[in-house]
Amino acid sequence: MASTRHWFESVAEAQRRARRQLPRSVYLALVAGSEKGLTLRDNVAAFSELRFAPAEVGDLPATREMATTVLGQEISLPVIASPAGVQAVHPEGEVGVARGAAQAGTAVGLSAFASMPVEAVAAANPKTFFQMYWMGDRDDMLAQVERARRAGARALIVTLDWSFSDGRDWGSPAIPAKLDLRAMLAHGPECLVRPRWVLAWLRGGGLPDLTVPNMARPGEPSPAFFEAYGRWMRTPPPSWADIGWLRGQWGGPFMVKGVMRPDDARRAAGIGATAVSVSNHGGNDLDGVPASIRALSAVAGVPSRLFPPWLDTEIAETPASTARLASSILVTPLSMNGPSHAERSQATSSQDGGTDCSHCP
Ligand SMILES: Cc1cc2nc3c(=O)[nH]c(=O)nc-3n(C[C@H](O)[C@H](O)[C@H](O)COP(=O)(O)O)c2cc1C
């Protein structure tokens, strides 16, 4: 079926449309790839080396069934929207992504760095998984956990792979701390050549809000993104015992995101995590980490009654940023987080016909 104005058939096209519609610095802020972009590229390249051999070609069930369960929620396909911060690139932001995911019958991950409050997102999609980082003091974290619970979040995701090495050899766009007159003058020219984007905001009744409402301390206004980021940078990294504490405070389904090694998967299981997401943050953080798909089979090999692990990447030989960018025009969620189907289909390398884990740590 040919694409139309409101519908398109591939993530590559979504990316082209996003590039055409977004101001340049907004587009570039979304494209992951720290330092040289080795991991970003490997996330895509690794898929070109893999072929999937279906386990069976006959005696298939009469109906196709893709439904599965993740973090206690039944979803209609084995894909969920991965959490991504600051989606104030579109007036509907995280609420639009949540609604799209709900329409597809699946769950949405909501970043603590989101531009929209967890209450609004959970109202749009009850299958909301709140994602947080280890940041601030325990009271701050408890406040976030309790707020997410009150809003109806069904699971907690804690992301552990961020290391603050977010410089890009290819250049990071300047992101304003807030949209004051100075920022508007600086970004005005690139916005003027994207009138549809500006119009969408004006119709939505305002300008992008660069605060992070889910980080607001009780009784205080929402901090600006960079203020919250600074708070996070000053927080000592957690031990597994700290993560165990967080898991205990939440008490419900709990995913550890950013696991790339079997020993970490074992530790996650040890503190009572109910799921792990095999993820390298889309290559957006530590460059040189192997593609998530390369680490998948080793993590899947960890004997545990808790997993199979979820794979956090696009399941396609397409540029790694495409599904993410698609979200900015609110058609597909940011990025895909799906379970390993290692037990059902065997992932083989095109070279040797065996499971490709040559890059596993
Ligand atoms: C712009 C951007 C923002 C992100 N923000 C978050 C976040 O706040 N929390 C989080 O756990 N992961 C975040 N991620 C990582 C995604 O959840 C996901 O792990 C990654 O994009 C998947 O890899 P892929 O890009 O190869 O699909 C972000 C990624 C990008 C590119």
Structure, described:
The model is unreliable at 314-361 (pLDDT under 50). The longest helix has 14 residues, at 138-151. Helix 4 packs parallel to helix 5 and helix 5 (118-124) packs parallel to helix 6. Strand 8, helix 11 (262-270) and strand 9 form a beta-alpha-beta unit. The protein has 361 residues and is of the alpha/beta class. Helices cover 35% and strands 14% of the residues. The radius of gyration is 20 Å and the shape is globular. It binds flavin mononucleotide. Residues 30, 32, 43, 82-85, 111, 113, 131, 159, 257, 279, 281-282, 284, 312-314, 320, 323-324, 335 line the site of flavin mononucleotide.
Describe the structure concisely for a colleague.
By secondary structure, this protein is an alpha/beta fold. It has helices at 11-21, 24-30, 38-48, 93-103, 118-124, 138-151, 181-192, 195-203, 225-233, 240-250, 262-270, 292-300, 322-326; strands at 50-54, 68-70, 73-75, 80-81, 108-111, 128-132, 155-159, 254-259, 275-278, 310-312, 336-339, 345-349.
Entry keywords:
14% strand, eight-stranded mixed beta sheet, disordered C terminus, 35% helix, single chain, two-stranded antiparallel ribbon, 361 residues, 13 helices, binds flavin mononucleotide, 12 strands, alpha/beta
Give the neighbour order of strands across the main sheet: 4-11-10-9-8-7-6-5
* Cα separation of the termini: 42 Å
Shape: globular
**Helix amount, in percent?**
25-40%
The largest sheet, given as strand count, sense and whether it forms a barrel, is: 8 strands, mixed
Return residue spans where pLDDT drops below 50 for at least 5 consecutive residues. Answer: 314-361
H/E series: HHHEEEEHEHEHEHHHHEHEHEHEE
Ions, cofactors and other ligands present here are: flavin mononucleotide
Strand content: 5-15%
